[in-house]
Amino acid sequence: MPSNKLRVSSYVLQITRYVFLTMTCWALTACLSSSDCFREDVFCAALVTDTLGVEDHGINQDAWAGLQEAQNNGLANKVDYIASVDSRDYLKNIAYFADLGYDVIVTSGISLDDETLQSADLAPDSVFVGLNQAFEETRPNLISITFPEDQMGFAAGASAATLTQTGTVAAVCETSGIDAMWRYCEGFREGAQYVNDQLNVLVVYREDGDSEKLFIDEEWGFATALSLIERGADVLFAAGGVTGQGALKAASEFGVSAIGAERDQAAVLGGAGISVVTSFYGQTSFEVQEVMRLIQEGHIPEEREGRVQYVPLSPAYPPEISAQLDALLDALARGEIDINVTNSR
Asked: Is residue 209 helix, strand or coil?
């Protein structure tokens, strides 16, 4: 039988835990109910990322930079973010900011599209901005921001055509059954041939592969890039997450120039991406600031298509190449070039 001292200690411990939990719950409730974001004169905006985190050298990092710039420019009084660790936390992370009264909640990445749409229904007082999310349904408090993969691929193809010495350029892509991949890589084909219709343009998709390796088949990406290099390709473009990164690693290992997509792949891969001369991805920071301005003015556009940006080429390349690329991107944004790529296969 336990001693009186042990029984008292156990009782004190239980009381202590109860008091701690009560105070914690009270504190959380107080925080939720007293958030400055509920005030009309305080404008709050937040970001919820996918599982790549806020330092992904791509859309997440750019989105957070855009929110910080918006605050610096007086478009927001308070900004914050949650970098999701698990996809099962998406809805909970979004709800955290909605419950605190945040005016704008930005979610980044196609994997959050369902949770963003659902949250727009659950929290009608907040405006939700889905980056790289094309919604089939509309909501009065929902904004879709997408970036033109066909333009990114076209610019990559034009760059490859400018850089090639062998007259053969190639693209390594995830399955063509994904519309974004189709637009990236058919855009690449069109861009290369736009600059030089005599080029040998090789485009290979990961068809009939293991569905469980979607976007993560690095081995296939590496082997496919190697086979294209053996066929004479001296500039490689790659798209499709880790699958594409496998191709970029092969290019770097064999000293072949490479072009990335979706984020700054040279920064992501480090020493394994030393041949990546540039990468093309969406101008997220600008778009985030622009929608913040529009929302502040009372305008909530249903959708926006953002512009394309690229990682600057190293000083080893003539400056006129960058000038030509800038002019090309401007012409694409103005619709002056017919890319001739449909939205889906």
From this structure: coil
Shared-domain flag, residues 168 and 87: no
Contact present, 268 and 107 (Cβ < 8 Å): no
CA atoms of 303 and 27, how far apart (whole Å): 39
Q: What letter would DSSP give residue 58?
A: B
Distance in angstroms (rounded) separating the CA atoms of residues 147 and 284? 9
Within a domain: residue 257? yes
**CATH code for position 326:** 3.40.50.2300
Is 84 found in the same domain as 197?
no
> Is 19 within a domain?
no
Report helix, strand or coil for 283. coil
Contact 80, 89 (CB under 8 A): no
Let me know whether 222 and 267 are in one domain: yes
Question: pLDDT by residue (tens digit) across 252-290?
Answer: 999 999 999 999 999 999 999 999 999 999 999 999 999
Residue 181 falls within a domain, yes or no?
Answer: yes
Establish if 243 belongs to a structural domain. yes
State how many domains the chain has.
2
Please write the tens of the pLDDT for every residue from 180-212: 999 999 999 999 999 999 999 999 999 988 889
The separation between CA 277 and the C-alpha centre of its own chain, rounded to angstroms, equals 20
C-alpha dihedral sign at 53, 300, 297, 285? positive
**Tally of CB atoms within 10 A around 89:** 15
Q: Quick one: pLDDT at residue 18?
A: 38
Q: pTM for the full model?
A: 0.84
CA within 13 Å, CB half, 297: 8
The residue range of the domain holding 46 is 36-147+285-293+299-304
Instruction: Give me the amino acid identity at 316.
Output: A
Q: Which residue has the tokens 């336990």?
A: 2
Please report which confidence band the pLDDT of residue 345 belongs to, taking 50, 70 and 90 as the band edges.
low
What b-and-e string marks burial along 301-323, b requiring 16 or more CB atoms within 10 Å of the CB? Answer: eeeeebbbbbbebeeeeeeeeee
Pairwise CA distance, residues 236 & 164, whole Å: 10
